[in-house]
Amino acid sequence: MSQQSNVRLFVLGALMLSLVLTLIGRLFYLQVMTGEEYKVAAVNNTVREVVEPAVRGLILDQVGRPLVSNRTSLVITVDKIELSREPDGGEAVIERLGRILDLPAEEIADRLKPCGSEGAKPPPVCWNGSPYQPVPIAQDVDPQTALTVMEQGQVYRSVDARLDAIREYPAPFNVNAAHLLGYLGPLTEEQLEEQGPTTASDRLRRTDAVGRSGLEAYYDEEVRGKPGITTLAVDTAGRVTGTLEQFDPEPGQYLISSLDARLQSVVEDQLVRAVQRAQRQGNPGDSGAAVVVDVKTGRILAMASYPTYDPSIWVGGVTQKQFEKLMDSGSLASNATQGIFAPGSTYKVVSTLAAGKQGFDLNGTYDCPSRVKLGTQVFRNYESAAYGDISLARALEVSCNTVFYGLADRMWEQAGGDDAGRDGADPVADAARQLGLGEATGIDLPVESEGRIASREFKIENWERKRDTWCKNAVEGYPETRKSAPELADYFTALDQENCADGFRWREGDALNASIGQGDTAVTPLQMAMVYAAIANGGTVYEPRMVKAIMSADGSQIQEIPPIVSNEITGSRARQSIRFLQRSLPRVTTEGSGRDPFSGFPLDQIPVASKTGSAQVTGDKVSTAWFASYAPADDPQYAVVMMVTQGGLGSKTSGPSVRKIYEALFGVDGQDVNSRRSVLVDGKPSSNLPVIRQDGTPVIPLGKDSGLPEARETVTARGDEGGG
C-alpha cells in the first residue's frame, strides 16, 4: 500500500474517531447532564391538566346571613381542540354561536385566542388557561338558548353549556359593606412571580380569580378552596389518549364575620343621613365614615364608608369606563380604615391621659379664657367661649381648647421648651401610642393607614425629608411667584428660611395644636373607635377583628379566632386617668357639647359617654364633624364613632346619627327601652356560631330577622323550619 493511501486511512480513522467521541459526548450530556430536564419536558409534552375551579366559600354575618354567596349561572363554553378540527377552523360555528348569543363573532374569536399569541387582546379578554380546557364565552345565558345549543350538537360542534358558580351579594337588609367584603379580580403577573416555580395542585393559575380587596383578599387562601385537577395523556398530535388521574375540587371555607347585617344597614343609612344633614346646613359634606365596635372583644359589628359603590359591579369584570368612574368618585378606598383626618377635640381624651400620667391634678381648677396668644399667633376656643375657672371635667364637657393649651404648654416647658433635644419628653405623643395611634390597628383587612402622631419624632423626620427643598426655596426665593405676587413670595421665602434652619424644633405652637388633635395629627375613624373602646373597657387596647371563625363548607370543622389584645394601659396614674375619663365623658352628653343630639334620649336608663369634635382643616375647607362615644357608660358594650368631612360641628352633623345607631342597638322608642326591638337578634352580639348544614347551606334567622326576600330565605335555609 502506498504512503498516500496510508495517510488517507489515518485521516479517515481520525475523523471517524472524532465523530464517535462527539456522539458519545453528546449522549452523555443529554442522558446524564441534562437527562432530568429533558425527561420533564417529555412528560410535559405528553401530559396536560384540565382544571375545575373550586367553589369559593361563603362570607356570613354573625348569625349566618349570607353577605357573599354563590349562585349558579348557565355558561356557554367552546372546546378549542374540537373546534380546530372543523374544516374551516371553526369559523362557521363561531358565526352561528355569535348570532344565538347576540355577540359579535370577532368578540368570541378574541376570547378564544391564547394570551400572548399574535393578535391576542390583554387579559381578561384573551384565554389564559389550558388549550384542553373549555373556554367560557358567555355567562347567565337563558335556559332556552343553552338547550338549543345542546340539542343541536351537529350545528354547534365543540360548543357546550354548563353550570358555574358565580359570586353574588345577597344584601340582607339592603346592606352594602363593599369596602369590607371586597371583590374578585384576575390574577396578576406579580402574584404568579411571588408564588415561584411549583407544581402543587392548589397553586395559583392564570385563569384564577382571586380576592382583590376586603375580606375576599385577606382570607383568599382560606376561601378559595382547592381546584379539581384532571391529568390527561396526549399524543404528539395533541389528541387525548387517556386520563391519568383525577382529583375532585374541594370547596373553600366559610368566613363567619362579626358583622351584623341589620346593624350594618342602619349604620350605612345613618352615615348617608349625616352627610345629607351637613349639606342641608350649607356645608359640602363630601365624605364620611362610621364604626361600631364591641368594646369587650374588639370585634367590628358594623363599619361604613361614604361614598361607596355596588360590590356586584366587579362580577364578570368592569370596563375601563366603569373603573375610571369609580376612581373619580373616590369611593374605592375606605374612609374608615384608609382615610386619615385631624381628630379635633375627640383627641382631648389622649391629652387628658397624658396630663394625668404627668401628675396634673385631674380634679383641679383650670382657667378657660376665650383665647391664648403666643407671640403673634392667637389660639382660640372653637366650640366654646370663655368659662373662667372650671374643672378639667367641665373643660371636657364644653370642649374648652384653652384649658388643654395650658396643660400642653406646661408639659412642653417641663420637657425643656425650645431647648429640648431630639430625645425630649413628649407626654401627649406617648399617650397616643399607648392607645394604639400612629400605627396600624392590625385589623384583618388587606390595607389600612397608620395615621400620624404630631410629635418631636415626627417633626424631625419631616424636616429630614423636606430640608433640601426648603433650603433650596429659601435661596431661590420663588422667582416665578415673585413675578406676579412679590409679597406672597417674600412670605414663602421667610417661611422656608425658618424651616430650613429650625424646622426640626418642637415649638410651643406645635405642642398646643397637638393637644387638641390639630396640627400634624391624623387618625383613621377605626383608630378613634378603638381608642374610645379602650377607655370604655378600662384600658385594654384590642386589635379590631372582622372575622370570628372559619368553618369548613359542611360545618364539620371550626377554627375560632379569639380576641387579640394589642396593649394594656398600666400604671396607677394612667389607670386613674382612664377612670376619670369614664366619670367625665357621660356628662358631655348630659351637660356639655353632646347634649343637643341626645335631648329626649333615655340617658337615665342608657347613659352615653361622648366627645364631640370639629377639626379644622387647612385652606378654606369646612371643619370635620366628629362624634365619638360608647354606651352604656355604666356597663360599656359598644363604642360608636362617626365623622363627616367638611361637615361643620360634630354635635349637629354626626351626633344625631350616632343617637339613631344607639336607638337601634338598644331598642329605644322615645323613653321606652326594649331589647326585643334591638336590631341584634336577642338584643346583643351573638355568642354562638351559626350552623352550617352538610350541604353547605347556612341556617339563618327567619321572618323579619332574615333580611332576605321570602323566596331567597327559603332557598338559603331550605329544610329548616325553626330558624337558628
The low-confidence parts are 40-44, 714-724
Radius of gyration, CA atoms, in whole angstroms? 33 Å
The total count of helices amounts to: 25
Spatial gap, N to C terminus? 108 Å
Q: What form results from the Cα inertia axes?
A: globular
Name given to the CATH architecture of the domain at 261-321 and 332-343 and 525-683: 3-Layer(aba) Sandwich
Query: What share of residues is helical?
Result: 25-40%
Mean pLDDT, nearest integer? Answer: 89
Q: Which band does the percent of strand residues land in?
A: 15-25%
The main β sheet shows up as: 7 strands, mixed
Q: Could you say which structural class the secondary elements and strand pairing correspond to?
A: alpha+beta
How many DSSP-defined strands?
A: 25
CATH topology descriptor of the domain at 261-321 and 332-343 and 525-683: Beta-lactamase
SSE map:
Blueprint: H1 3-33, H2 35-46, E1 47-52, E2 59-60, E3 66-78, H3 80-84, H4 91-101, H5 105-112, E4 135-138, H6 143-151, E5 159-168, H7 178-181, E6 184-186, H8 189-195, E7 209-211, H9 214-218, H10 220-224, E8 228-234, E9 240-247, E10 254-257, H11 261-280, E11 287-294, E12 300-306, H12 320-329, H13 348-357, E13 365-368, E14 371-374, E15 377-380, E16 388-391, H14 392-398, H15 401-414, H16 427-434, H17 456-476, H18 479-484, H19 486-502, H20 508-515, H21 525-537, E17 540-543, E18 547-551, E19 558-560, E20 564-568, H22 572-591, E21 609-615, E22 624-631, E23 638-645, H23 650-653, H24 655-666, E24 668-669, E25 672-673, H25 710-716
How would you sum up this structure, described in words?
40% of the residues are buried. Residues 40-44 and 714-724 have low confidence and may be disordered. Strands 2, 3, 4, 5, 10, 18 and 19 form a seven-stranded mixed β-sheet that branches. The protein is α+β, with helices and mostly antiparallel strands and 724 residues long. The longest helix is centred in the N-terminal third of the chain and has 31 residues, at 3-33. α13 (348-357) packs antiparallel against α22 (572-591), α15 packs across α20 and α17 (456-476) crosses α19 (486-502). Among the domains are: 71-169, no CATH class; 261-321 and 332-343 and 525-683, Beta-lactamase; 456-505, no CATH class. A hairpin with an 8-residue loop joins β21 (609-615) and β22. 38% of the residues lie in helices and 19% in strands.
